[in-house]
């Protein structure tokens, strides 16, 4: 069935109910072997953080918080998946309703609050999955953990997920966990990354291979904050930056129903600001840290815009709600066209085409999901 025909039915449900219904039915289609042929996985080898991706279009964290639907989601054509955010202990998240559609703008507001079943349950789900592709795991802190003790939660999750992850994302940018974004401050971030890297080095030595680390940041940053975060990324040898999470801004949607709801705004209205932040980091990091662009991508052209701004790869979430799984293929095709145009103009590979030397750490395969 075409997604355009299914969407009115999904949009008749509450957004969170529609989310659950969609994942459950994707799982049924996967088990009936009806997904793979509809959304073939297109090959466009891309190197990001030293990892070889099948293609540069990934699934963003938040869609599958517990890793329950890895095999089904892998059949939608993504080049890589990121699951989570996961916390040490299970938590229910914020009270419902906590997700709202702003359909006129192709946007979503959510205040989910890191609802998940805890890291141990996620690991059980990963062990059950058959997927052998690139799997990122997004980690966070429990809401009951004081922000001053956040490092304890991140280290706990890091130690648990290390042998299962192709890369690990440190999420300090959700607006729905009290004071979490305080960790983006220069001193707070330096303390956090110092502790995480100490644990990370120990794990790499114990396991004999290196799993890259990425940091996921907010779009609501001042220039001074961008400067401080970029410096910390380089100082602590972080492999990747995911830009960006959702925004607290309501610019462009002020008059729409649900615009007054608290939470993070995602979708099309986020695209411009998210890309501006991505561009700012690209200038400051100058190729020393690989970038993944996420936020407001609902067309292939917007995916290309992230690459033009300096990203090596992109991730999708809210755009899928409005455009359906075909958005993955649309983005891949647009990126392929972009690559071809770039090669035609330069007759030489650009940074997007040849990232073979970006793996800073050669302790073994990073792609071990």
TrEMBL record:
UniProt-annotated binding residues for FMN: 61-65, 85, 138, 171, 216, 244, 267, 296, 317-318
Domain Dihydroorotate dehydrogenase catalytic positions: 45-336
CDD domains: DHOD_2_like (cd04738)
Cofactor(s) needed: FMN
Membrane topology: Peripheral membrane protein
Catalysed conversion reaction: (S)-dihydroorotate + a quinone = orotate + a quinol
Region (Disordered): 347-369
Cofactor mode of binding and number, as noted: Binds 1 FMN per subunit.
Entry binding sites for substrate: 65, 110-114, 171, 176, 245-246
Superkingdom to which the source organism belongs: Bacteria
UniProt pathway: Pyrimidine metabolism; UMP biosynthesis via de novo pathway; orotate from (S)-dihydroorotate (quinone route): step 1/1
Listed InterPro entries: Aldolase_TIM (IPR013785), DHO_dehydrogenase (IPR050074), Dihydroorotate_DH_2 (IPR005719), Dihydroorotate_DH_cat (IPR005720), Dihydroorotate_DH_CS (IPR001295)
PROSITE patterns in alphabetical order: DHODEHASE_1 (PS00911), DHODEHASE_2 (PS00912)
GO molecular function: dihydroorotate dehydrogenase (quinone) activity
Main location: membrane
Entry keyword Lipid biosynthesis: no
Pfam families: DHO_dh (PF01180)
NCBIfam families associated with the record: PRK05286.1-1, PRK05286.1-2, PRK05286.1-4, PRK05286.2-5, pyrD_sub2
HAMAP family, A to Z: DHO_dh_type2
Subunit structure of this chain's protein: Monomer.
Family affiliation: Belongs to the dihydroorotate dehydrogenase family. Type 2 subfamily.
Name of the protein described by the UniProt record: Dihydroorotate dehydrogenase (quinone)
Species of the source: Moraxella nonliquefaciens
Gene of this entry: pyrD
């Amino acid at each position: 069935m075409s997604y355009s025909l299914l969407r009115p039915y999904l949009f008749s449900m509450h957004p969170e109910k529609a989310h659950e219904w969609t994942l459950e039915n994707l799982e049924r289609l996967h088990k009936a072997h009806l997904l793979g042929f509809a959304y073939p996985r297109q090959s466009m080898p891309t190197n990001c953080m030293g990892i070889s991706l099948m293609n540069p279009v990934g699934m963003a964290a938040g869609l599958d918080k517990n890793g329950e639907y890895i095999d089904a989601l892998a059949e939608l054509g993504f080049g890589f998946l990121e699951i989570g955010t996961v916390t040490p202990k299970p938590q229910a998240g914020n009270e419902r309703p906590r997700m709202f559609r702003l359909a006129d703008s192709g946007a979503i507001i959510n205040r989910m609050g890191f609802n998940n079943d805890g890291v141990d349950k996620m690991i059980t789900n990963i062990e059950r999955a058959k997927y052998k592709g690139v799997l990122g795991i997004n980690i966070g802190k429990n809401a009951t953990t004081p922000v001053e003790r956040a490092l304890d939660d991140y280290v706990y999750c890091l130690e648990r997920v290390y042998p299962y992850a192709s890369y690990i994302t440190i999420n300090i940018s959700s607006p729905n966990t009290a004071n979490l974004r305080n960790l983006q401050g220069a001193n707070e971030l330096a303390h956090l990354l110092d502790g995480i890297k100490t644990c990370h080095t120990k794990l790499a030595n114990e396991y004999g291979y290196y799993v890259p680390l990425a940091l996921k940041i907010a779009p609501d940053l001042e220039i001074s904050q961008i400067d401080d975060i970029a410096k910390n990324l380089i100082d602590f040898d972080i492999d990747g930056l995911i830009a960006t999470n959702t925004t607290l801004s309501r610019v462009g949607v002020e008059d729409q129903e649900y615009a007054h709801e608290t939470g993070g705004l995602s979708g099309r209205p986020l695209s411009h600001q998210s890309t501006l932040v991505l561009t700012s980091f690209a200038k400051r990091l100058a190729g020393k840290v690989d970038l993944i662009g996420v936020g407001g991508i609902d067309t292939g052209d917007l995916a290309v815009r992230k690459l033009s701004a300096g990203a090596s790869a992109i991730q999708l979430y809210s755009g899928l709600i409005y455009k359906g799984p075909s958005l993955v293929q649309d983005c891949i095709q647009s990126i392929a066209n972009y690559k071809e145009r770039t090669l035609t103009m330069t007759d030489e590979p650009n940074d997007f085409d040849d990232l073979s030397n970006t793996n800073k750490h050669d302790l073994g395969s990073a792609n071990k999901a």
